Amino acid sequence: FLPISNEGNSASYPMDVALSPEVVAVILSPQPILGLYDWQGAKLKTLNLKREVGRITGIAYHQNTFYVVDTERHQIVAISQTGRVLQRYGERGVDQGQLNYPTFITVTAEGTIYISDTMNFRVQMLNAEGKWLKQYGTPGVGPGQLNRPKGVAVDSSGRVYIVDGSFDNVQIFNKAGQFLLHFGSAGHLGGELMMPTDIAISIPWIYVSDTMNKRIQCLRMLYE
Q: What pTM did the predictor assign?
Protein backbone atom coordinates (compact mmCIF):
# COMPACT_ATOMS: atom_id res chain seq x y z
CA PHE A 1 0.00 0.00 0.00
CA LEU A 2 2.75 2.46 0.94
CA PRO A 3 5.95 2.38 -1.13
CA ILE A 4 9.32 3.15 0.43
CA SER A 5 10.15 6.75 -0.35
CA ASN A 6 13.56 8.27 -0.95
CA GLU A 7 14.26 11.89 -0.15
CA GLY A 8 17.79 13.05 -0.84
CA ASN A 9 20.27 10.21 -0.44
CA SER A 10 18.64 8.25 2.35
CA ALA A 11 15.76 5.80 2.31
CA SER A 12 12.74 6.63 4.43
CA TYR A 13 10.62 4.18 6.38
CA PRO A 14 7.11 4.54 7.81
CA MET A 15 7.07 5.56 11.49
CA ASP A 16 3.45 6.43 12.29
CA VAL A 17 0.18 7.03 10.47
CA ALA A 18 -2.89 9.25 10.79
CA LEU A 19 -6.15 9.09 8.87
CA SER A 20 -8.25 11.96 7.60
CA PRO A 21 -11.42 11.63 5.51
CA GLU A 22 -9.39 12.44 2.39
CA VAL A 23 -5.84 11.18 2.96
CA VAL A 24 -3.61 8.74 4.76
CA ALA A 25 -0.66 10.64 6.27
CA VAL A 26 2.53 8.74 7.02
CA ILE A 27 5.64 9.94 8.83
CA LEU A 28 8.61 8.87 6.70
CA SER A 29 11.53 8.72 9.12
CA PRO A 30 14.35 9.55 9.78
CA GLN A 31 13.83 12.78 7.82
CA PRO A 32 10.95 15.04 8.92
CA ILE A 33 8.86 14.06 5.91
CA LEU A 34 5.12 13.54 5.72
CA GLY A 35 3.81 11.42 2.86
CA LEU A 36 0.18 11.93 1.87
CA TYR A 37 -1.68 9.11 0.06
CA ASP A 38 -5.24 8.57 -1.03
CA TRP A 39 -7.30 5.71 0.36
CA GLN A 40 -6.34 3.47 -2.56
CA GLY A 41 -2.63 3.89 -1.78
CA ALA A 42 -1.72 6.34 -4.54
CA LYS A 43 0.78 8.97 -3.50
CA LEU A 44 -0.63 12.50 -3.56
CA LYS A 45 2.33 14.57 -2.36
CA THR A 46 5.22 14.74 0.06
CA LEU A 47 5.62 17.46 2.69
CA ASN A 48 9.22 18.10 3.68
CA LEU A 49 9.04 19.74 7.11
CA LYS A 50 12.78 20.16 7.75
CA ARG A 51 12.45 23.95 8.06
CA GLU A 52 9.68 23.62 10.62
CA VAL A 53 10.59 20.67 12.85
CA GLY A 54 13.44 18.45 13.98
CA ARG A 55 12.88 14.69 14.21
CA ILE A 56 9.20 13.74 14.24
CA THR A 57 7.85 10.50 15.68
CA GLY A 58 4.08 10.44 16.21
CA ILE A 59 1.13 11.93 14.35
CA ALA A 60 -2.61 12.38 14.88
CA TYR A 61 -5.39 14.06 12.91
CA HIS A 62 -8.25 16.31 14.04
CA GLN A 63 -10.44 18.75 12.09
CA ASN A 64 -8.24 19.38 9.05
CA THR A 65 -5.10 19.53 11.17
CA PHE A 66 -2.23 17.10 11.63
CA TYR A 67 -0.55 17.06 15.03
CA VAL A 68 3.05 15.84 14.78
CA VAL A 69 5.34 15.11 17.71
CA ASP A 70 8.70 16.84 17.33
CA THR A 71 10.73 14.59 19.60
CA GLU A 72 13.97 16.47 18.99
CA ARG A 73 12.56 19.88 19.91
CA HIS A 74 10.19 18.61 22.64
CA GLN A 75 7.05 20.02 21.02
CA ILE A 76 3.71 19.22 19.47
CA VAL A 77 3.34 20.99 16.14
CA ALA A 78 -0.08 21.49 14.53
CA ILE A 79 0.17 21.74 10.74
CA SER A 80 -2.29 22.11 7.89
CA GLN A 81 -2.61 19.58 5.08
CA THR A 82 -0.41 21.89 3.00
CA GLY A 83 2.37 21.85 5.60
CA ARG A 84 1.75 25.28 7.14
CA VAL A 85 2.48 25.48 10.87
CA LEU A 86 -0.63 26.54 12.76
CA GLN A 87 0.44 26.16 16.38
CA ARG A 88 3.23 24.86 18.60
CA TYR A 89 2.72 23.39 22.06
CA GLY A 90 5.30 22.66 24.72
CA GLU A 91 8.95 23.16 25.53
CA ARG A 92 11.58 21.05 27.23
CA GLY A 93 11.14 20.64 30.97
CA VAL A 94 9.55 18.61 33.74
CA ASP A 95 6.68 20.88 34.79
CA GLN A 96 3.04 20.53 33.77
CA GLY A 97 2.72 21.08 30.03
CA GLN A 98 6.46 20.77 29.43
CA LEU A 99 7.91 17.81 27.56
CA ASN A 100 11.05 15.69 27.50
CA TYR A 101 11.50 13.63 24.34
CA PRO A 102 7.81 13.06 23.61
CA THR A 103 6.99 10.33 21.10
CA PHE A 104 3.36 9.44 20.30
CA ILE A 105 0.07 11.31 20.38
CA THR A 106 -3.67 10.91 20.03
CA VAL A 107 -6.38 13.56 19.71
CA THR A 108 -10.00 12.82 20.62
CA ALA A 109 -13.08 13.92 18.68
CA GLU A 110 -13.43 16.80 21.18
CA GLY A 111 -9.88 17.99 20.46
CA THR A 112 -8.32 16.78 23.71
CA ILE A 113 -4.64 15.92 23.24
CA TYR A 114 -2.88 12.97 24.89
CA ILE A 115 0.91 13.06 24.49
CA SER A 116 3.43 10.41 25.55
CA ASP A 117 6.00 12.47 27.46
CA THR A 118 8.44 9.60 27.28
CA MET A 119 11.48 10.74 29.25
CA ASN A 120 9.29 12.35 31.89
CA PHE A 121 7.71 8.87 32.30
CA ARG A 122 4.12 10.02 31.90
CA VAL A 123 1.30 10.79 29.48
CA GLN A 124 -0.05 14.33 29.62
CA MET A 125 -3.58 15.39 28.76
CA LEU A 126 -3.95 18.84 27.19
CA ASN A 127 -6.95 20.76 25.94
CA ALA A 128 -7.29 21.91 22.33
CA GLU A 129 -5.31 25.07 23.14
CA GLY A 130 -2.45 23.08 24.67
CA LYS A 131 -3.32 23.87 28.30
CA TRP A 132 -2.41 21.14 30.81
CA LEU A 133 -5.33 19.18 32.22
CA LYS A 134 -4.08 15.93 33.72
CA GLN A 135 -1.24 13.43 34.00
CA TYR A 136 -1.33 9.65 33.68
CA GLY A 137 1.40 7.57 35.25
CA THR A 138 4.47 8.31 37.36
CA PRO A 139 8.07 7.03 37.20
CA GLY A 140 8.66 3.61 38.72
CA VAL A 141 8.19 -0.11 38.28
CA GLY A 142 4.88 -0.71 40.07
CA PRO A 143 1.29 -0.84 38.77
CA GLY A 144 0.34 2.47 37.18
CA GLN A 145 3.98 3.53 36.90
CA LEU A 146 5.79 4.00 33.59
CA ASN A 147 9.33 3.63 32.32
CA ARG A 148 9.13 4.09 28.54
CA PRO A 149 5.63 5.25 27.55
CA LYS A 150 5.05 5.14 23.81
CA GLY A 151 1.72 4.80 22.00
CA VAL A 152 -1.42 6.13 23.64
CA ALA A 153 -5.10 5.65 22.79
CA VAL A 154 -8.45 6.53 24.34
CA ASP A 155 -11.60 4.41 24.05
CA SER A 156 -15.22 5.54 23.86
CA SER A 157 -15.55 5.32 27.65
CA GLY A 158 -12.61 7.64 28.23
CA ARG A 159 -10.19 4.95 29.36
CA VAL A 160 -6.57 5.73 28.48
CA TYR A 161 -4.32 2.95 27.15
CA ILE A 162 -0.56 3.47 27.35
CA VAL A 163 2.04 1.25 25.71
CA ASP A 164 5.20 0.85 27.78
CA GLY A 165 8.07 -0.28 25.58
CA SER A 166 10.27 -1.09 28.56
CA PHE A 167 7.75 -3.17 30.51
CA ASP A 168 6.40 -4.84 27.33
CA ASN A 169 2.84 -4.17 28.36
CA VAL A 170 -0.16 -1.89 27.97
CA GLN A 171 -1.48 -0.07 31.04
CA ILE A 172 -5.07 1.14 31.30
CA PHE A 173 -6.25 4.14 33.33
CA ASN A 174 -9.73 5.52 33.91
CA LYS A 175 -10.82 9.09 33.14
CA ALA A 176 -9.67 10.29 36.54
CA GLY A 177 -6.16 8.97 35.99
CA GLN A 178 -6.48 5.94 38.28
CA PHE A 179 -4.72 2.76 37.20
CA LEU A 180 -7.12 -0.06 36.32
CA LEU A 181 -5.10 -2.96 34.94
CA HIS A 182 -2.39 -3.95 32.49
CA PHE A 183 -1.98 -6.68 29.91
CA GLY A 184 1.04 -8.14 28.19
CA SER A 185 4.48 -9.32 29.28
CA ALA A 186 7.81 -9.97 27.59
CA GLY A 187 7.79 -12.89 25.18
CA HIS A 188 7.01 -14.22 21.73
CA LEU A 189 3.72 -16.06 22.28
CA GLY A 190 0.25 -14.72 21.58
CA GLY A 191 -0.51 -11.88 23.98
CA GLU A 192 3.17 -11.42 24.80
CA LEU A 193 5.09 -8.38 23.55
CA MET A 194 8.63 -7.33 22.75
CA MET A 195 9.29 -3.58 22.77
CA PRO A 196 5.78 -2.57 21.65
CA THR A 197 5.41 0.93 20.29
CA ASP A 198 1.92 2.03 19.29
CA ILE A 199 -1.74 1.19 19.84
CA ALA A 200 -5.14 1.73 18.20
CA ILE A 201 -8.60 0.91 19.53
CA SER A 202 -11.88 0.02 17.88
CA ILE A 203 -13.86 -1.51 20.75
CA PRO A 204 -13.91 -4.40 21.40
CA TRP A 205 -10.65 -4.75 19.43
CA ILE A 206 -7.24 -3.48 20.52
CA TYR A 207 -4.36 -3.38 18.02
CA VAL A 208 -0.77 -3.22 19.32
CA SER A 209 2.44 -2.78 17.31
CA ASP A 210 4.55 -5.63 18.68
CA THR A 211 7.73 -4.19 17.20
CA MET A 212 10.52 -6.64 17.98
CA ASN A 213 8.23 -9.59 17.29
CA LYS A 214 7.60 -7.98 13.87
CA ARG A 215 3.83 -8.23 14.06
CA ILE A 216 0.61 -6.45 14.93
CA GLN A 217 -1.38 -8.18 17.65
CA CYS A 218 -5.15 -7.92 17.79
CA LEU A 219 -6.71 -8.47 21.21
CA ARG A 220 -10.35 -8.47 22.29
CA MET A 221 -11.67 -6.45 25.21
CA LEU A 222 -13.34 -8.77 27.74
CA TYR A 223 -14.61 -6.47 30.49
CA GLU A 224 -17.14 -4.55 28.37
A: 0.93
